[in-house]
Design the sequence.
């Protein structure tokens, strides 16, 4: 593998398994020094052992990404252990799937905490560090890589909390991309489709995503997504920011976001009785959106 990230230091959250573990291993193989964050310390230790056995550098971090102070300890550990920080890969996630009518406040809060607040906490501490360096006149080529989902981009039946959190992450990425460039920071989000503990919890998904028995290309291997993450973490990606990048198997695509249509306008207030006809015309002209998952 090309050593695109030699000398770079990265934090990967939720890196004890699934996509996070694949990101951590692939970053290390590309030369990065990796802080492997997971509340499951034993799982994180396995990933660190794999990386070090392959000649890479990594350490375990068990910071709670939903707690602002604890999340800051991950950034401090990167600086204390490796002397710098270049990349934050926000990967950690959870799910509490329910139809909206059955969704509890606890279900909502648990998913928002890990996905949306979790994306904020470590990134906030990292940005403070990078901004301080810029103000001190030091060069910065920093990267934030967030993780959204098709559920957040187009909705998903039975996942209102997860979809809302992932949509929030997409919007957060747009804002970070627009705001942080002045500090030498790019922010992008990946929208992955891969075999993980979350995706294979559903039996039919587990069967569909199973590795091929004939040794052919493993379309749903998480490492396929990790290749995009490695490039985004590298200095080569400095010209790309505020993008949502879909990665599945051997396919890479950009998710094209909300756009205003030309609309229908008059130089007066619409009477409520006229709005229905206007909406009919607008809907007739509409480019059909992608369907909500599961509909």
Sequence:
């Amino acid at each position: 593998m090309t050593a695109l990230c030699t000398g770079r230091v990265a934090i990967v959250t939720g890196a004890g398994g699934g996509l996070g573990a694949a990101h951590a291993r692939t970053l290390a193989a590309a030369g990065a020094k990796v802080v492997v964050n997971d509340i499951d310390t034993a799982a994180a230790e396995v990933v660190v052992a794999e990386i070090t056995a392959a000649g890479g550098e990594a350490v375990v971090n068990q910071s709670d990404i939903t707690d602002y102070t604890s999340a800051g300890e991950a950034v401090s550990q990167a600086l204390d252990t490796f002397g710098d920080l270049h990349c934050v890969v926000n990967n950690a996630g959870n799910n509490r799937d329910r139809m909206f009518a059955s969704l509890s406040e606890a279900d909502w809060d648990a998913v928002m905490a890990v996905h949306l607040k979790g994306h904020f906490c470590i990134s906030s501490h990292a940005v403070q560090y990078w901004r301080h360096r810029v103000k001190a006149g030091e060069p910065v080529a920093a990267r934030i890589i967030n993780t959204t989902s098709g559920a957040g981009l187009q909705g998903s039946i039975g996942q209102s909390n997860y979809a809302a959190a992932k949509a929030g992450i997409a919007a957060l990425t747009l804002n970070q991309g627009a705001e942080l460039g002045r500090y030498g920071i790019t922010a992008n989000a990946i929208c992955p489709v891969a075999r993980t503990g979350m995706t294979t919890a559903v039996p039919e998904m587990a069967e569909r995503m199973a590795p091929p028995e004939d040794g052919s290309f493993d379309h749903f291997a998480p490492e396929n997504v990790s290749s995009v993450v490695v490039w985004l973490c590298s200095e080569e990606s400095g010209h790309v920011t505020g993008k949502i990048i879909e990665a599945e198997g051997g396919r890479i695509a950009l998710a094209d976001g909300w756009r205003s249509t030309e609309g229908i306008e008059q130089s007066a207030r619409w009477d409520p009785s006229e709005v229905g006809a206007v909406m009919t015309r607008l809907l007739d002209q509409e480019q059909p959106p992608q369907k909500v998952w599961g509909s």
Notes: The longest helix spans residues 105-135. The chain has one domain: 9-254. The chain is about 45% helix and 15% strand. The CA atoms of residues 270 and 278 lie 9 Å apart.
